[in-house]
């Protein structure tokens, strides 16, 4: 084995044996991030991560709103919660609480598939600009859909927001299928 090859291998082994600080630890310490794992160098994946996190936070906000409406309207799904908050007469359904629950359920039905599709799509190596447009359109569509749902905006606002948000999902699914068809 040549001396150059052996030196290169030794150099790689030394680099691998040195302790690495996580991106979170580096950020908390105020340092610039050192080279990170491949996935965190993927510009498309980082954009996907940003928009996905916005959507997850939005889902948490809808859950909090649901809880607040439930408390304000004194409409509890469980008898123990009703007893704690005034009595069994408050173990009931309320149209406003149900609207919040439907908005949250609709988020789960649409955002969870987006999380799968976006993650796989990010690994296909798409154009960062095109990918960012996909993620942005879905994110804005879902935010508008939730606002239209919770504020009972005039039709067809909610339907249009839903449809617009489905376009990038359909596009990503199609591109994933086209990329993976040779392997089925």
Question: Which features would summarize this protein structure in a list?
Answer:
184 residues, mainly alpha
Secondary structure layout:
Layout: H1 3-17, H2 23-29, H3 38-41, H4 43-73, H5 79-84, H6 95-123, H7 128-150, H8 157-180
Structural class: mainly alpha
Strand content: under 5%
Unreliable runs, pLDDT <50, ≥5 residues?
19-27
Which quaternary structure do these chains form?
single chain
* Rg estimate, integer Å: 24 Å
Largest sheet: none
Helix content: over 70%
Number of helices: 8
Query: What would you call the shape?
Result: elongated
Q: What is the mean pLDDT?
A: 87
Order of helices and strands: HHHHHHHH
By DSSP, the count of extended strands is: 0
What does this structure look like?
This protein has 184 residues and is mainly alpha-helical. The chain is built from eight helices and no strands. It has helices at 3-17, 23-29, 38-41, 43-73, 79-84, 95-123, 128-150, 157-180. Helix 4 (43-73) packs antiparallel against helix 6 (95-123) and helix 4 runs parallel beside helix 7. The radius of gyration is 24 Å and the shape is elongated. It starts with a helix and ends with a helix.
Short recap of the structure:
With 184 residues, this protein is mostly helical. The protein is built from eight helices and no strands.
């Amino acid at each position: 084995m040549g001396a150059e090859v052996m030196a290169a291998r030794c150099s790689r082994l030394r680099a691998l044996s040195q302790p690495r600080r996580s991106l979170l630890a580096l950020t908390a310490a105020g340092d610039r991030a050192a080279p990170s794992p491949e996935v965190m160098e993927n510009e498309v994946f980082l954009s996907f991560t940003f928009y996905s996190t916005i959507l997850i936070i939005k889902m948490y906000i809808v859950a909090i709103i649901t809880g607040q409406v439930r408390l304000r309207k004194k409409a509890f799904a469980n008898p123990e919660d009703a007893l704690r908050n005034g009595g069994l007469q408050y173990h009931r359904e309320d149209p406003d609480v149900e609207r919040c629950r439907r908005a949250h359920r609709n988020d789960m039905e649409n955002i969870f598939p987006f999380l799968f599709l976006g993650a796989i799509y990010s690994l296909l190596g798409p154009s960062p600009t095109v990918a960012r447009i996909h993620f942005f359109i879905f994110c804005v569509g879902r935010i508008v859909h939730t606002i239209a749902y919770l504020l009972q905006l005039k039709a067809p606002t909610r339907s249009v927001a839903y449809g617009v948000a489905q376009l990038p999902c359909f596009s990503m699914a199609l591109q994933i299928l086209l990329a993976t068809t040779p392997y089925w």
